[in-house]
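ENTRY TYPE: protein
CONTENTS: sequence, structure tokens:
***
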Amino acid sequence: MSHSENYNLIIADDDRTIRHLLELKSAHYGFRPVTVENGTEVLDLMNDQVEVLLLDINMPVMDGFACLQKLSKTHPHIPVVMLSGENDAEVAMKAVKLGAHDYVTKPFDMNELFTALRNAKKVSLIQKENQSLKDSVSSSSVSVGIIAESDGMKSLLKKAEKVAKLDSSVLLTGESGTGKGVLARYIHSHSHRADKPFITVSCPALPRELLESELFGHEKGAFTGALQKRIGKIEAAQGGTLFLDEIGDLSIDLQPKLLNVLQDRVFYRVGGEKAIDCDVRIITATNIDFEEKIKTKEFREDLYYRISVIPLKLPSLRMRADEIMPLAQCFADRVAAKHGGNAIKFTSEAVDKLITYHWPGNVRQLENSIERACAFCENDMISPEDLTGSIDGSSDQSAMFSGLAGQTLAEVEKLAIQQTLILCGGNKAECSRKLGITEKSIYNKMKRHGLM
């Protein structure tokens, strides 16, 4: 076993010559590699800093396939590139269907191999930046890691459960960071496809040329560097769910091909002539205004109608005030569990600051703020000072006003009542005094807004 400090790539192959060659070349390509001989050693070295794994299929002690199956449970977000012999191509394709990012056959072309590894690294970085709420909340959350305390989220989850039983295309909308990817997984987990693959593709993550191959796969010789056939994400998701994140950024050239998948349930690999049947449920997500995109001819209107058969909108965090502290506590608990520390709590002043902030970055921003606060807090207690810098109210006035802009007066009133009630611990008399209205008025307004 070859060790390296701060490694981000694990190379697993029982051939010493290949290990040594790839270790030297990967450093040249900007990776920090460590090499091992079998799957057991891979599992021993896995940690949060690993970004990519190159895994040979045929190894002693524990082969690549068995290792992949274990990693799918312990480290599902780390992309794996499988390395196989010519006769193992079918096995490698099966591995891709079960979660491997890509595969390369021996004898391999060095440029092709490291193109696959670099693409996998891009996916890894994107997944870390957009780490889903599913991995961040406690097991006490509603089903697939979703905390639903507000009426809006409870209603949304009921709709999602009904939608899950259908095979219709679903379009998830909402601001960035609200948890669209988590809701997509929630729908998949409640569907009859739950035991099949859930495959995610981030549309803006790759340039158009790579994204086309990523989605549809390609035939050997389809373009320069296509030295072997490769299955795409649509094919890998067969029988399951394909989640297309930020669908609004899909290239106009690829939109007719996706439309063909939705209409005819067939597709063609790049460079291929054979139609491949497609049995996948497609869920898409966006935070853009499709109306404007359609007007400027950047998005096809017919594709929009196909992907938005069932639209679901996620509310912003500022409209889910009841969930701010349950989420914050879950994030704090996760940090404590990760580092083996004591439970972390919040002072009442910190609670006030968290609840009254408008969270333009939504749940993702809340998670990052709590993680940062946990690093600075003393005596396992987060104070307002620990939150300074991440949600400093004095520097975020523009964010606050942008959060209110576009909301109806009724929505603003409801939000003010919700947040003030939380600050007052549910005391309606105190809430009415803080809002400058009579106690009778607070009861009438709560009833009108469905808060009672």
Notes: The chain has 20 helices and 14 strands.
